Each structure stands twice: as structure tokens, then as C-alpha cells.
Amino acid sequence: MNNNDLSAKPHYPILDGLRGIAAIIVVTFHLAEPLSTSNLDKFVNHGYLAVDFFFLLSGFVIGYAYDDRWNKMTVGSFFKRRIERLQPMVILGMTLGAIGFYFTDSTLWPLIHTVPVWKMLLVMLIGYTILPVPLSLDIRGWEEMHPLNSVGWSLFFEYIANILYAIWIRKFSKTALSILVLISAVALAHLAITNGDVSGGWTLNVQQVRIGFTRVMFPFFAGLLLSRVAKPTHIKNAFLWCGILVAIVLYMPRIGGAEHIWMNGIYESVCIIIIFPLIVYVGASGVMQSRRENKVCKFLGDISYPLYLVHYPLVYFYVAWISNHKGITLVEVLPYALLILIGSIILAYFTLKWYDEPARKWLRAKFK
Description:
368 residues; globular
């Protein structure tokens, strides 16, 4: 999700800021989700598209950071950099999920009180590797790849995209990469239009793994292609307009309803295939308007990845609480949702400063 490996190159602070905005919207999506009955009536209806936006940002930044470094960098050193960047927060996120696991007992998860500690710890250790756990180790009962911290599924596919890039696709010409991106776009549009949306990818079965691969292949490698062909210009107020556009796309209500699911599929296809690359291009072309805007973008970018990994263990508590208060209204839930949102942002900032940055520094020294 977050790929700040650009120390030797000019930075794209606006893209960092947009990543942070999308991460905050993901939290609001997960907070609104328990109040819905299906994808049709979710309040933050397209919040899950933030993951597809993250994939596109990742592909763009990876291409920008590494495409011209392969003459002095090995595949091994590339993966060391990715592990250094991604794994500390993966480990912390799974640990937080483990600490909270037995305290999120609810009628939603009847299995929790029957799970032996050794089994929970095994799931945690597998989670540390970001490899998905088999359904036989589904200790929560939601069929998640990572029952201790559900959002780990997207990191699994992010790693796959990184592996494909490093060992193979980085060598593609622009033409070959364009063909791959075109095929991936067709596959994504087919998935979205036939299913009505692209939501999914977090379960270790054939259908869900297919959704996960389809969701990562187009945006990640479209971002890579964009980094190779785009020539950023100088666009004023890019952060403001791109931030508003990201929010509009992710907060857009469901389109078409149950009778015309293809309409929503077309909307999501247009967002991922056309609008997201446009946002990234404009964001990369943006000119910072003030020192304050630069600080806002830096803060949002810094907390985006920690926020993504630490918020869901808190959401499990929130979901359990809602399940134990049947019929609760949005107005009644709102103070608790705001508390989780603000608490998640604060927790993300402190984990960034007290854990993630020191851990990355330590890993960087070890790898050298």
C-alpha cells in the first residue's frame, strides 16, 4: 500500500496526501459496514475501492522509484526494501489482532470462545508472513485470509504484484506492458459488470482469489505503465481537487440497485480504469500551494499505512458491540464510530513514531 522508497528522488507529496485521505475513508467504510445488510445499502458504499486506488498508487510509485535502478540493484535487494517497508506494520497489525481476539467474543463469532490459544498463536505467526491461512484455521468464522486482521488480504496481493514486477514484468517494454494492462482492464470490467462490483478477495477459495488477482493486476500495472509514459506538468490546487474527487468516488451511493447490478459494475470499472489513473496523474503533476498543505500531505501520507493496519483490530470490538445491541441506529452509533476513527488515527501516529520508523531503521541497518 505505502511505498515511500524515494529518498534519492524528488517526492510526490500530493500522492502521499491522497493515500492518507483514502485510508481514512477506508476506516469510515468499515465503521459504516456493520449497519448495512449487503453491498446494496452500505452508507460508504464504494469505500472498498480505496484498495484498488492503493494498488494503482503502489504501481506508480514502485515504477518511479525502481525502474531505473535495476542496473545497480538485485531482486534480493528490492525485496529487502519491500520487507523493510511493509513487514513491521504487518507484524504489529497481526499482534494487535491477536491481543484483542478473545475480547471480541460476539454472537457473530461463536467460534472464538472455543479456539485454543495455540491455534490463535499459529494463525498469528502465519499472519506475520502475510501468507493466507487455510479455511481449516478460520478461527473467527468469517472466512478471512487473516482472521486476526482482515485487511492483510490486500497486502498478500500487493506482495504478489511486487514479486511479478521484480522477477518478470519490470523487463516488459511499454508495448508489452500496455497489452498486459489492456487484458487486465478487460478482466476487471468483466468481473465488475457480471458481479455488480469488485468487492472481494479476502477468502482463500478459488472465486475470491480470482477476485483478488483481478483487482491487483490492472491497477498495479496500470500505475507502473503510468509512471513510464506520463509526463507530469504543473497543476495548481491538485491536492484539493484530487482529494475531493477521491471522496466523491468512494462515498458515491450504490448505482442501479439489485435489478441493474451491471450499472454499478460499469461505474466501478470507469472509476478504476479511467478516474483513478487520472487522479494519480494530476496528483503527480500538482504543485504544493503552501507550507501548510505540504505538512498536511506529509502527515496524511505518514499515517496512511499504519492506519490501514491498526484500525481493523479496533473495528472488531466495534462490530461486536453493535452485534450485541440489536436495532441500534446510526445516530446512536455515531459517537462510538467517531471515537474509533479518531482513536485509530492517534494510534497510527504513535505506532508510526514509536514502532514503525524505528523498526524500519533497524531493518535497514541489518540488511546493509
